[in-house]
Amino acid sequence: MTPLDDADVSTVLVVTAHPDDVDFGAAGTVAMLTDKGIRVVYCIVTDGDAGGFDRELDNGGMAQLRRAEQTEAAKRVGVTDLRFLGYQDGTVEPTLGLRRDISRVIRQVRPDRVITSSPERNYVRIQPSHPDHRAVGGATLDAVYPDARNPYAFPELLADEGLEAWAVREVWLTGGQTNNHWVDITATVDRKVSALKAHVSQIAHIADGIEQFVRGFLAANAKAAGLPEGSYAEGFQVVQTA
Ligand SMILES: [Zn+2]
């Protein structure tokens, strides 16, 4: 699968369930894109309000903290435009309402490429297949096709908000079992690790191990991609949507 050349891409929208998902799955790639002058926007469906360890905060306080952490993490890879949808962590379903909300953001942002979670369960590793990730991935693919491009789908978006239909050209899925594209992120891996470390409420209890763990799986990706020893890579399943 050959994805669009980045030279033909002006805007990329990343849609994830939780603060930190993009940083585990795609922040090295995001940094590569922003370095090329490509506009990247994050849409984060929940505030991750059910996350954290040894908590003293209630869910409202956690939501506020996690938005701040994601905003800082985004800044470290060149992203300053974040849209938080405010859904409740742990309860996301691929409803018509979620499809409409993601379609709204797609029509506002008008991306060439969308990056989101795989809606399929990964039977090799269970963590990428959190139910919220699968729900967001499914709703995002449905928003890409057919909702956002069909002016007669969710007609209120056009009638009430003036949002014209928009056709996304391709989708990249993270966390699946069937990657068909690898991005060499050796040049940006340090910034990816730095972005991950901005999620202090999530990783403080594993701070020592997180960098080793992340570099380990990125190095394994690079090996699968046939890159030289010492390289790091992020993997995606590219889906044509034209
Ligand atoms: Zn997540």
Write down the secondary-structure element order: EHHEHEHEHHEEHHHE
Q: Which architecture per CATH?
A: 3-Layer(aba) Sandwich
What's the shape? globular
Low-pLDDT segments, ≥5 res: none
Tally of DSSP helical segments? 9
How many DSSP E strands? Answer: 7
Which molecules other than protein and nucleic acid are bound? Answer: zinc ion
CATH class: Alpha Beta
Largest sheet: 7 strands, mixed
Task: Identify the CATH homologous superfamily.
Answer: LmbE-like
Helix- and strand-based class? alpha/beta
Counting structural domains, the number is: 1
Percent helix, as a range, is 40-55%
What does the radius of gyration come to? 17 Å
The overall pLDDT, averaged over residues, is: 95
Distance between the termini: 14 Å
CATH topology: Rossmann fold
Strand content: 15-25%
Order of strands in the sheet with most strands? 3-2-1-4-5-7-6
Layout of strands and helices, then pairs:
Layout: E1 11-16, H1 21-25, H2 27-35, E2 39-46, H3 59-76, E3 81-87, H4 96-109, E4 113-117, H5 131-147, H6 155-161, E5 170-174, E6 181-184, H7 189-197, H8 200-203, H9 207-224, E7 233-240
Helix pairs in contact: 3-7, 4-5
Bound molecules: zinc ion.
Please provide a written account of the structure.
InterPro entries: GlcNAc_PI_deacetylase-related, LmbE-like_dom_sf. GO terms for molecular function: hydrolase activity, acting on carbon-nitrogen (but not peptide) bonds, in linear amides. This protein is α/β, with parallel strands linked by helices. Helices cover 42% and strands 18% of the residues. It has helices spanning 21-25, 27-35, 59-76, 96-109, 131-147, 155-161, 189-197, 200-203, 207-224; strands at 11-16, 39-46, 81-87, 113-117, 170-174, 181-184, 233-240. Strands 3-2-1-4-5-7-6 form a seven-stranded mixed β-sheet, sandwiched between helices. Helix 3 runs antiparallel to helix 7 and helix 4 packs across helix 5. The longest helix has 18 residues, at 59-76. The chain is globular, with a radius of gyration of 17 Å. The two termini are 14 Å apart. The model has no long low-confidence stretch (mean pLDDT 95). Residues 17-18, 21, 130, 133 line the site of zinc ion. Zinc ion (ZN) binds at residues 17-18, 21, 130, 133.
